[in-house]
């Protein structure tokens, strides 16, 4: 652990998960838990549950689970120590200096070395641009009407024709070939050895929100392919979770962000005073990038190219923004293709007017949809109205849906009642608008004996978490060693210790594990669906059955080991008798 167990638990216990999650999602209380649409997968009805009692969250749709640390790690892309720091600051706990294991020191040092290497590479490209070798790159940037101040702000550079100069420079700074390759700045060539794939390109350093260089984009000079080349993903560069220009845009204080397609669009917009512009990194806009934006604003303006590909990208982006709970609007740039062309030809003032006149994203979708139908033909008009009704199903809140329905009905001269009837009809057919319910998990795979054993162990641990008084009734029967899965055994050991101290506290157990994958698996243990049984007698039978299943599986696993031990046979007989006795034992679930 980076911090002591005591500090981790103090921060977690002071950070109520409902308060933290409600800062990101709109939670609604239903029964004992709070519900929202899951931020980690696409859904229309809330299946994301937050338990105040357990201090945990669980999605019944995608299965993701965890405590308050896990939530921040997944939502904000924080490492575990970063999540601890953020929550500690939030709840007023002063953290001591972090305690690193040797393995953790190596990992942290490796990432820092990669960042140091990227910084040196950016410095190399920067000076190359301003040297005689960078003449072609400088001419290109000046032709694009970028000022020296703008080029300096974004750290623009140039990679010359060789491809080997960068490697030699980085070696001279003490960076080994393995690290240069890992940073994605060079590839191995049979003829030339380690050589950079970035050559004859204007270079755009990609920075994280803190201004650290994490990767590069390169625009080729001339007609070479690919036109833009980006760094591969590395331990410090995840293109799905970062946005170009976000390190500047997050402090713009404009109340919105403008999402563009390319690096040059962002740079020219910043030069024109629109410092809230950002762009995705050589890939389509992602849900992770939407969640990054949501940390700073809930209003996004799309400034995608006005061609067919740009329209398709805008339609896709609108859906991602909506799923993330963000409001999207479309900036129209006709007769020009992109923001760079528009600003060069009409200036910043006209672009600001286009921002002020940005189109509601739903109206934009309907307008684009309209192109597919002949509205002078009654049949085409009917089909168009049907598609509008289907589109209106995206609004699960009745008031919002009704507002859009009336606005669209007025715009396209259709009766609101008729449109409302169509919406209701499609809702009934497709289940698009209905009360929230937990999605049913459908599986077509046959459950293996190992799957059944693990499921029994999860169910038993959930029983003991939800009803910790049961542990005192079976503490002489059950031990952590009866859990044959290693993770479940660790969870059981800690859970039993906590119950003995009078506090089941499942959320604290999750913090025992460093990586989010293991944390999620541990959290699932406490969120296994228990059978819904109305009578006490049936519940007692169900609990007895699952306890017996766990003990029986434990016995079967130990048989082979006992057979080879010196006193194994007698211990085998004893274990067999205990199992037979348990099968006949009645365990009351009543208090006392």
Question: Can you put this structure into words, describing what you see?
Answer:
Strands 1-2-3-4-5 form a 5-stranded antiparallel beta sheet. The protein has a 5-stranded mixed beta sheet with strand order 13-12-14-15-16, with helices on both faces. The protein has 4 domains: 5-91, Zinc finger, CHC2-typedomain (DNA Primase, Chain A); 101-236, DNA primase DNAg catalytic core, N-terminal domain; 372-430, no CATH class; 449-584, DNAb Helicase, Chain A, CATH 1.10.860. It is α+β, with helices and mostly antiparallel strands and 592 residues long. Residues 432-444 have low confidence and may be disordered. The chain is built from 25 helices and 16 strands. β14, α13 (308-323) and β15 (327-330) form a beta-alpha-beta unit. α1 (5-14) packs across α4, α3 (68-76) crosses α4 (80-91) and α11 packs across α14 (339-356). The two termini are 39 Å apart.
DSSP helical segment count: 25
CATH topology of the largest domain: DNA primase DNAg catalytic core, N-terminal domain
CATH class of the largest domain: Alpha Beta
Radius of gyration: 30 Å
Count of individual beta strands: 16
| Helical content band | 40-55%
Average the pLDDT over all residues and give the rounded result.
86
Number of domains: 4
- The first-to-last residue Cα distance is 39 Å
Please give the order of strands in the largest beta sheet. Answer: 1-2-3-4-5
Shape: globular
Helix/strand-derived category reads alpha+beta
CATH superfamily of the largest domain: DNA primase, catalytic core, N-terminal domain
Weakly predicted, low-confidence segments: 432-444
Q: What's the architecture of the largest domain in CATH terms?
A: Alpha-Beta Complex
Question: Major sheet, described briefly?
Answer: 5 strands, antiparallel
Share of β-strand residues = 5-15%
């Amino acid at each position: 652990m980076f911090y002591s167990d005591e500090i981790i638990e103090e921060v977690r216990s002071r950070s109520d998960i409902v308060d933290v999650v409600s800062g990101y999602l709109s939670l609604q209380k239903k029964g004992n838990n709070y519900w929202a649409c899951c931020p980690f997968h696409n859904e229309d009805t809330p299946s994301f549950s937050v338990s105040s009692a357990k201090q945990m969250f669980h999605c019944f749709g995608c299965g993701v689970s965890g405590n308050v640390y896990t939530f921040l790690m997944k939502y904000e892309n924080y490492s575990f120590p970063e999540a601890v720091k953020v929550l500690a600051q939030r709840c007023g706990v002063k953290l001591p200096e972090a305690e690193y294991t040797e393995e953790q020191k190596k990992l942290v040092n490796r990432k820092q070395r990669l960042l140091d290497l990227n910084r040196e590479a950016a410095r190399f490209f920067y000076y190359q641009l301003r040297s005689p070798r960078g003449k072609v790159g400088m001419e290109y940037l000046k032709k694009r009407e970028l000022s020296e101040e703008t080029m300096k702000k974004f750290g623009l550079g140039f990679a010359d024709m060789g491809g080997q100069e960068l490697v030699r420079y980085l070696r001279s700074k003490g960076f080994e070939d393995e690290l240069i390759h890992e940073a994605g700045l060079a590839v191995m060539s049979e003829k030339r050895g380690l050589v950079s794939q970035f050559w004859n390109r204007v270079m755009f350093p990609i920075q994280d929100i803190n201004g650290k260089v994490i990767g590069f984009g390169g625009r080729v000079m001339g007609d070479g392919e690919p036109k833009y080349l980006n760094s591969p993903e590395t331990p410090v560069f995840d293109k799905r979770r970062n946005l170009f220009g976000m390190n500047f845009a997050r402090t713009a204080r404009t109340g919105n962000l403008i999402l563009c397609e390319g690096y040059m669009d962002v740079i020219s917009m910043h030069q024109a005073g629109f410092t809230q512009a950002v762009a995705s990194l050589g890939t389509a806009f992602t849900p992770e990038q939407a969640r990054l934006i949501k940390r700073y604003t809930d209003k996004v303006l799309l400034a995608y190219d006005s061609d067919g590909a740009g329209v398709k990208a805008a339609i896709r982006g609108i859906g991602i923004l909506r799923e993330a709970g963000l409001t999207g609007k479309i900036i129209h740039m006709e007769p020009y293709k992109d923001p760079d062309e528009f600003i060069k030809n009409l200036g910043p003032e006209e672009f600001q007017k286009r921002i002020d006149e940005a189109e509601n994203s739903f109206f934009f979708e309907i307008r684009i949809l309209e192109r597919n139908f002949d509205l002078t033909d009654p049949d085409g008009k009917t089909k168009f109205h049907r598609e509008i009704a289907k589109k209106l199903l995206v609004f699960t809140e009745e008031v919002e849906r009704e507002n859009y329905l009336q606005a669209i009905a007025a715009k396209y001269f259709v009766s609101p009642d008729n449109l409302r009837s169509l919406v209701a009809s499609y809702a009934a057919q497709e289940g698009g608008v209905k009360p929230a319910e937990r999605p049913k998990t459908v599986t077509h795979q046959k459950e293996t004996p190992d799957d059944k054993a693990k499921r029994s162990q999860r169910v038993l641990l959930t029983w003991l978490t939800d009803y910790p008084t049961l542990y005192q009734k079976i503490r002489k029967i059950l031990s952590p060693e009866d859990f044959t899965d290693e993770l479940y055994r660790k969870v059981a050991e800690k859970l039993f210790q906590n119950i003995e101290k009078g506090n089941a506290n499942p959320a604290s157990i999750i913090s025992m594990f460093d990586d989010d994958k293991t944390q999620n698996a541990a959290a699932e243990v406490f969120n296994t669906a228990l059978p819904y049984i109305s009578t006490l007698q049936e519940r007692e039978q169900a609990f007895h059955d699952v306890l017996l299943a766990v003990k029986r599986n434990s016995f079967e696993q130990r048989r082979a080991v006992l057979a080879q031990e010196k006193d194994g046979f007698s211990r085998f007989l004893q274990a067999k008798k205990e199992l037979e006795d348990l099968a006949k034992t009645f365990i009351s679930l009543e208090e006392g």
